[in-house]
Amino acid sequence: VNPNELTAWIQVAQVLAGIGIQVADKIKALIHTAQPTLSDAELDAAYAAILADDNVRAAFADKASQA
Amino acid sequence: MRKWYLVLLIVALGLVPACGHLTVLQRVQQSHDALALAQDAEASICWGVNSIAEAMAAKVPENHCTTQLAAQVKLTDERHQSISKAFKKAFDDHAVLTTIAASGAKSPDSSVVNADVATLVKLASELLQSSVTVSQLQVQLKKAGAQ
Lengths: 67, 147
Hints:
The structure holds 2 protein chains of 2 kinds.
Chain A: H1 3-18, H2 24-31, H3 40-64
Chain B: H1 2-12, H2 15-18, H3 24-47, H4 52-58, H5 68-72, H6 77-102, H7 111-129, H8 132-146
């Protein structure tokens, strides 16, 4: 596993854990899985995790942008 | 704040798109992480927290900065709100990009997200220019460059 890739996965897991999204364990499990050997389910989980964080952050930013 | 600016700068310079050997998932993940780190860094200036997650847990006043650092670098509420609006658009657009990538697209178009990042870099630059600390840094860099 590429160390940079590993760091990024850990960051995603930490972010998700921090906001209480319970997919962090799945992401941590993916740390041990070298891409591109991810299964379809693992890929789906990874994209879902990113999408969930995109949406949480956009919602927070929306509140913060209100005058 | 420099961390935030540097993260945006790295993305703006095209580092992520340049990583052609990365999978689509890795590219989407890296662009997400860069944006997320930038948002966390702005949050650290605004509220003295380490991340948006911490800001949410602390129930900060979302549209109002509370730290002395924010005042020092002229991160006014108006600027913070403008930056947040840009972050909202960036994450919304990134969510679309993520959805397209998740559908199996081999080369999803990231130009909209890149444009969002460029907007954020511009906003960060304005903030940097108003910062005494960063002004001092710029002077030091000029000195370093002259050597």
